[in-house]
Specification:
This protein is an alpha+beta fold. The chain has four helices and 22 strands.
Length: 413
């Protein structure tokens, strides 16, 4: 009993020392356990706001597109018709001119001298003819009296006839001199535009035949023609439709202008096909290697925007107008080469629907795209905010009237 009492204090001290040594390790764990906070609950973000609209439905005819090049109706190389020195140039390079407007002036003085000489020869021939006419009249009166012989009279009549011929020759020389003098003033043969001048004031030009000096080139710009190659199938369909619209009656290709088959064109910087024209020429045969026919459209080109040599896209209209579904260009997405639109279902959930697209159509509010397959025309489409409309996601659809800015070119749902 005595030994037990002596051993208890020692064990108590050992336990105290153990707890004191490990208290430094347990204290941080206790503090950490007391400061830990529960994680906040996850909050789902609100649905993304997107602008929706209904597709448009319009009556559109089937069209085919081709590549074409513009050409002037008239192109004239202006050359000198008389030789001489250039004294004046009356236009600026590329200027628009009217028919009859002066372009160049060649020194007129040598030709004025020749004209005056020719006029003098005419006056001389007139005087000689007048004298011989008087002599013939006098000899005719003396012939019955045997004062002059028949031979003398006939010789005088022959001289008179020669004088008449000389007068006609002198008159023709005056006309030629007047013409050469007129050719000294070179005028525009057409209304259009002139190219750069190839001579300047002081240059000597030649007007002799094939070696005549080229001065400049003039082309017409209104109307303008566009040449393109169309496949024979499309051309025949367009002709059949045009004849049907005229209530029958055969029309030959040489009279194709009477059919008034519409063609439209666009330049490389334009959207849509703003230039309106008609098909006015179809070539006489089909190229067997390509199966195409050379065609030509004529366009008014009132503003002169289309110039010869320009590249254009030409659209040929065939068939009767049919109901066609159109959507704004911005409403069409592309995923790995596949085109789709984002349709919002009645539960406001997005469905990516694949579509087949056709040609573009110019609209005052923007560019529309024809949907050939994939839409019925009564779906709600995402027309703004397509990047936020993930497939299967929940969205908050708003109409164009409630959204800013609104996207034109689509009907309200």
């Amino acid at each position: 009993m005595h030994c037990f009492s002596l051993d208890l204090p020692q064990r108590s001290c050992s336990l105290v020392r153990f707890l004191h040594a490990h208290s430094l390790l347990l204290l941080p764990l206790a503090l950490a356990a007391g400061c830990q906070r529960p994680a906040p609950p996850l909050v789902e973000p609100p649905p993304a706001e997107v602008v929706v609209a209904l597709p448009l439905t319009r009556e559109l005819a089937e069209t085919l597109e081709f590549t074409g090049n513009a050409a002037a109706v008239e192109t004239v190389e202006i050359k000198a018709r008389v030789s001489g020195f250039i004294t004046q140039v009356h236009f600026e390079d590329g200027q628009r001119v009217e028919a009859g407007a002066p372009l160049f002036t060649i020194d007129e003085r040598p030709y004025a001298v020749v004209r005056d000489q020719a006029k003098a020869e005419v006056a001389k021939a007139v005087a000689e003819l007048k004298e011989l006419e008087s002599e013939v009249t006098r000899y005719r009166a003396l012939l019955p009296k045997a004062v002059v012989t028949q031979e003398q009279y006939e010789i005088l009549v022959a001289k008179r006839d020669v004088a008449k011929a000389m007068l006609e020759k002198a008159t023709a020389a005056v006309a030629q001199a007047e013409l050469d003098l007129e050719f000294c003033r070179i005028i525009s043969p057409l209304s259009g535009r002139v190219s750069t001048r190839e001579v300047d004031v002081g240059d000597l030009v030649s007007g002799s035949g094939s070696s005549a000096t080229r001065l400049t080139t003039a082309v017409t710009t209104t109307p303008i023609r566009v040449y393109f190659d169309a496949d024979e199938r499309a051309l025949l369909r367009a002709r059949q439709q045009a004849i049907a619209d005229r209530d029958g009656g055969a029309v030959e290709w040489r009279n194709v202008k009477e059919l008034k088959i519409p063609v439209t064109a666009q330049l490389v910087t334009e959207t849509g096909f703003p230039h309106q024209g008609i098909l006015d020429f179809v070539d006489i045969g089909v190229k067997p290697t390509t199966g195409t026919v050379r065609c030509r459209g004529e366009f008014p080109n009132a503003d002169g925007l289309i110039t010869p040599g320009m590249f254009l896209r030409v659209r040929l209209t065939i068939g009767q107008p049919q109901p066609t579904v159109l959507v704004p260009e911005l409403a069409i997405g592309i995923d790995q080469g596949r085109r789709y639109v984002a349709v919002v279902d009645p539960e406001n959930r997005v469905i990516h629907r694949p579509v087949e697209t056709g040609r573009s159509v110019a609209d005052p509010g923007g560019i529309l795209r024809v949907i050939e397959r994939g839409l019925d025309g009564d779906e709600r489409l995402v027309v703004s905010g397509l990047a936020r409309a993930r497939d299967g996601s929940l969205v908050l659809p708003v109409t164009e009237a409630d959204a800013a800015p609104a996207l034109p070119g689509a009907a309200s749902p």
